[in-house]
Each structure stands twice: as structure tokens, then as C-alpha cells.
Design brief:
With 430 residues, this protein is α+β, with helices and mostly antiparallel strands. It has two domains: 151 residues, no CATH class; 222 residues, no CATH class. The chain has 15 helices and eleven strands. Strands 1, 3, 4, 5, 6 and 7 form a six-stranded antiparallel β-sheet that branches. Strands 2-9-8 form a three-stranded antiparallel β-sheet. A two-stranded parallel sheet has the order 10-11. Strand 4 and strand 5 form a beta hairpin. The longest helix has 34 residues. It is globular, with a radius of gyration of 25 Å.
């Protein structure tokens, strides 16, 4: 018995050492001292206005989901989407190059920004399906079909569905031209239906309390008198109504955080856009008819600013720090194009204010304080900085002439001016 026990201990120690050696060896192979990508997000974001045409194609594919569709993506559009990710995650870099013979994708991630880099690259080939020649992770090269198979199995296993398989089978052909890739897609109905089912299931599994509370506050706010007003209602009145109820329901700082989040999500779905509610789960009493106010909510006398504020607040709660700002900035860059409203630092100020509001409302040390403060606010300036002097309606040409790129000193100075104004608001001072 003693000998068997010693043998078992020796085996476990040996296995531990082997695993440790394997992990160390894998880490050495993956981690590199030089970045593979040094792309500049400001340069990539210069083409953000071109993404509008891509969004139109996707909207058609999603709305006409029982038909096949062709989606054409330019290298500029793909780079712009990579650029917004880089703005949200400063340690991330990505670059895309598309030719008639294939498309290369490369990413670099620096976890601590201290000369340690994780480099990933892939070669995508044209063909009758999504075809990947290879994927490299540091010094390790993996055959593309192996990588796709592993990704498919992992996604299916994680979601407890066939989403990975369905997604791959929807790609019927990949056609490449210089600086452009064409995706020929089969009907998306089954895939989108499965995504909805999985999304709902995951939201229930991971955060059922938040979903339940958000649904409660959505019903509560929609039944209040202000929701039935025939004239526009200031957003601060909706916030007062929701936060007053949240204060009644909160016994501890953690309670306050949860209720504050639910109020923000409920308002984002009610006065922002009903699709924001999908971030939380099934919150609508009637899935076929989303609740909405009789009249628009306004901030600084504008409905667009109210929507920017509350949707950015919701995005801040869902994403990593900086994501809501990156998305807001990207949206403004898109608006510079033909038919858009132009780049607006006023809209960006509302985005940044909403993110700041979400940060303090979601902090255990300030959550109850926020509930009390919102009950006392009397002016839009208690949550939104003054907008006088902030440029808006800038076309791409005017934006480029005045600010060049989003990393130029004039642009940074303008954003810092918004931050200065935000810092003067007592609610955000900490």
C-alpha cells in the first residue's frame, strides 16, 4: 500500500513537472520580443465613413434573412473596424491586407506594454467556403482546417448549440480582389434564430437577476406619468424617477450597484433604442412590440444627446473601459460621410458624459451617493457638460482640414476640453 501511494505521488509530481515544462515551453513559443503589427488606429479610422455602406448590406441580410446575400467588404472598411477596437484597447494592434490571391490578417497584443508581445497572423484563401491556409501564434503554426475545426467545436461546446457549425456553413463562397473581399452567404434565418436562443439562454444563466430587475424597471418607468407626456421630457426626469425607485429598493452598496445598472439598461432600451435591451436579455413584456415613450426624451433640449448619453452609459456597463468612447468616436467619424450629420464634438461630449455617469453609478463606493444626487438634480448641467463652443456638423473635408486625425494635437486638445468640462461636474469629480 505504501509503495503504491509513493508511486502515485511520484506519478503526480512527474505529470505536474511535465505540464509545467509544456506550459513554459508554449509560453516561450507564443511570447515574442518584437511586435508583428505597428498599425496606427488614427490612420485606420480615416475611412470610417465608408462603413455605412457595409452596415446597409448587413441590415439587408439580417432583415431578408430567408434569402442568400452577397456582402462586399473593402480593405478600408475592415481596417476601420480594426481601428475602433484599437482605440478601445490601446495594447491591441491589427492590420489587414487583401489581394486577389488571398487575405492576410495580423494582430499584436501587448498585455503589459513592456516589450512582451503576442503575435497572431492568418492567411485566408478564396474558395467555395471559408478557407484558412494557416494560423500562426508566435512561433507556432497551425493548419487552417485544424484551427477552424477547433474553433467550431469550442464555440459549439461553449454555447451548447450548433452556432459554430451553422456560421461556417453559411459562407458559400469567398471571392477576393485587390483591396476587397466578397462573401457569398446562404440564408441567415436559422443562424440568427439560434443566436437569439443562445443569447437568451446565456443571459439567463449568467445574470438572471440583472435581467429580471431591468425588465421590472422598464415596466415601472413605462407606466409613470412622464412616459405618457405629449411633449418632450428631460432625461434627468427619467433618471430621477428610476433612481428614486432604485434608492427605495437598495439596502446595501452592492444592491445599489445592481439596481443602478438595471435602471440605466431600462432607460437605454426605453428612451434610447429598444435593441439595447438585448444586451441584458428578454426584458420586453411583449417581444413583438417594444415599450417606448409617447414623446422623446431630451438632454440640452435635444433628443439625439439624450440617446447618446443613455446608450453610452449602457455600453460602458457592458464593455471594457474605453469601449463606449471608442464606439462613440467611431460613430462620429462615420457621420462625416455623404448624407451623415457630420462629426460632432457635442455628440461625443454626451457619449463621454454617459460613460462617466455609468462609472460612478456602478461603483460600490458611490452607487448610493449617485441615487441621492440624482434625486436632487435640477439641471441638465448636473450630468452633461455645457456644449457651447464645441464644433459639430463637420464634413470629412472640414474635419481633416481642422483636426487631421484623431491623434493630432488639435483633436486631443478638443477632447481634453470636454474632459475638463466633465471634471467640473460634482457628480463626476472623483
Amino acid at each position: 500500500m505504501a509503495r503504491a501511494f509513493r508511486w502515485l505521488i511520484g506519478l503526480l509530481v512527474t505529470l505536474f513537472i511535465l505540464i509545467l515544462v509544456a506550459v513554459v515551453g508554449l509560453s516561450i513559443a507564443i511570447i515574442q520580443k518584437q511586435p508583428l503589427v505597428a498599425a496606427s488606429a488614427p490612420n485606420q479610422l480615416d475611412g470610417a465613413d465608408t462603413v455605412n455602406t457595409l452596415l446597409a448590406q448587413l441590415n439587408t441580410a439580417f432583415s431578408q434573412r430567408e434569402e442568400g446575400h452577397t456582402i462586399v467588404l473593402s480593405e478600408t472598411q475592415i481596417e476601420s473596424l480594426v481601428g475602433v477596437q484599437q482605440r478601445a484597447m490601446p495594447h491591441f494592434r491589427g492590420v489587414v491586407n487583401v489581394t486577389a490571391n488571398g487575405g492576410t490578417v495580423a494582430f499584436t497584443f501587448s498585455p503589459n506594454n513592456d516589450d512582451i508581445y503576442i503575435n497572431v497572423s492568418a492567411l485566408i484563401l478564396p474558395g467555395k467556403a471559408l478557407t484558412i491556409d494557416y494560423i500562426t501564434l508566435g512561433d507556432i503554426s497551425i493548419p487552417g482546417d485544424t484551427a477552424l475545426g477547433l474553433a467550431e467545436a469550442a464555440i459549439n461546446r461553449y454555447t451548447r448549440s450548433e452556432i459554430g457549425t451553422l456560421a461556417l456553413t453559411r459562407v458559400e463562397a469567398v471571392v477576393m480582389r485587390d483591396n476587397e473581399v466578397e462573401l457569398q452567404l446562404g440564408p441567415l434565418d436559422e443562424l440568427l434564430h439560434e443566436i437569439d436562443n443562445v443569447s437568451n439562454q446565456l443571459s439567463v444563466d449568467t445574470d438572471n437577476e440583472l435581467e429580471t430587475l431591468t425588465a421590472y424597471y422598464l415596466r415601472y418607468i413605462s407606466g409613470r406619468e412622464l412616459a405618457l407626456s405629449s411633449t418632450p421630457v428631460p432625461l434627468i426626469e427619467y433618471l430621477r424617477e428610476g433612481m428614486a425607485r432604485a434608492r427605495e429598493q437598495s439596502q446595501t452598496p452592492d444592491d445599489a450597484v445592481m439596481h443602478n445598472k438595471a435602471v440605466i439598461f431600462a432607460l437605454a432600451a426605453f428612451v434610447g433604442h429598444h435593441r439595447v435591451g438585448h444586451l441584458v436579455g428578454n426584458i420586453q413584456p411583449n417581444p413583438d412590440k417594444a415599450l417606448k415613450p409617447r414623446s422623446a426624451a431630451i438632454l440640452a433640449e435635444r433628443n439625439d444627446l439624450a440617446r447618446h448619453f443613455i446608450i453610452s452609459a449602457a455600453l460602458e456597463l457592458m464593455g471594457e473601459a474605453g469601449m463606449s468612447l471608442a464606439i462613440g468616436e467611431f460613430k462620429e467619424l462615420m457621420d462625416r460621410g455623404l448624407g451623415g450629420s457630420g462629426y460632432s464634438f457635442v455628440d461625443l461630449a454626451a457619449d463621454m458624459a454617459g460613460a462617466e455617469f455609468a462609472k460612478v453609478a456602478n461603483h460600490p463606493d458611490h452607487a448610493i451617493e449617485v441615487q441621492n444626487a440624482v434625486a436632487r438634480i435640477q439641471s441638465d448641467l448636473d450630468i452633461m457638460p455645457p456644449i457651447e463652443g464645441l464644433p459639430e456638423g463637420l464634413s470629412k473635408a472640414k474635419f481633416t482640414e481642422r483636426y487631421q486625425r484623431v491623434d493630432s494635437p488639435p483633436y486631443i486638445a478638443q477632447v481634453n476640453e470636454i474632459r475638463r468640462r466633465l471634471a467640473n461636474i460634482p457628480l463626476y469629480r472623483d
